Amino acid sequence: MGGGDLNLKKSWHPATFKNQERVWKEERKHAEEQRKIEQMKKELAEERQLQELQRLQEQTSGRQRSDRLDWMYAAPNQGAAKPGSNEMEDYLLGKKNVDDLLRNKAASETVASSADERFALSNANANTERDIQAKIREDPLLMIKKREQQALKAIVDNPIRMKELTKKDKKKKKKKDIKDKSDRHHHHRHSSSRHSSTRDHSRDRSRERRRHSSRERRRDSRERSSRSRYRE
To answer: From the CB of residue 101, how many other CB atoms can be counted at a distance below 10 Å?
Structure first.
């Protein structure tokens, strides 16, 4: 029978990985909301402090600050003298030559045309940059790399998931070490058995050579004895 708590297999149990991850996400979301609330409180406090400083400045100087928006509805050159009115009057009275007026007009048109060309060139450069940025954003390889980086960042930022992956990696390394040790042991046994078989084979060969030499000696002795008897 397998051991362990059967409640760990229930979906409602707080010790399961999914429930721990859900709790961690909710805690992180709550912390982010609290951070935003604290930031808003800080901005409101700074705004109130600025208003208080402005009020104290008005009381000290005796000059009231105007919050009206009349300047938005004023004419562009209201209250200012037109720059070319006196010059046109001089031309009408004959104080200045008309050729100067034409030359000034041509120069102003040249400046305006060059400004238009620069504006068109800047627009073209902007369009080119936008096209390049769009191509970069639509690059499938870059999108895959970005997704991989986001997935890796999500795993690194999640301590529970990181702990689970570390545990799996340790198990894989342990299995690999056991397999390598078993392979080395098997190789050692195979090599030792091979060496022992080689030694046995050499031993048998030497034994066979000794037997053969003993047989040869006995045969030679018999031949010598038979020769001696024949001579007698």
So the answer is: 15
Spatial separation of the C-alpha atoms in residues 216 and 218, rounded to whole Å: 6
Provide the CA 188 distance to its chain's centre, in angstroms. 45
Residues recorded for the chain: 232
Q: From residue 88, give the alpha-carbon distance in Å to each of 100, 212, 225.
A: 11, 141, 160
How many helices (H) and strands (E) the chain has is answered by: 5, 0
Mean pLDDT throughout 28-43?
92
Scan for tokens 């001089």, then name that residue: 90
What's the mean pLDDT when you consider all of the chain? Answer: 72
Strand spans (E) along 60-207: none
Cβ within 8 Å of residue 87, ≥6 positions away: 96
b/e per residue, 26-61, with b = 16+ CB within 10 A?
eeeeeeeeeeeeeeeeeeeeeeeeeeeeeeeeeeee
- Asked if residue 70 has pLDDT above 70, the reply is no
CA–CA separation, 129 vs 135, rounded Å?
10
d(CA 2, CA 86): 104
Q: Which residues contact 15 (CB under 8 A, 6 or more apart)?
A: 8
| Long-range contacts of residues 46-49, Cβ cutoff 8 Å, at least 24 apart | none
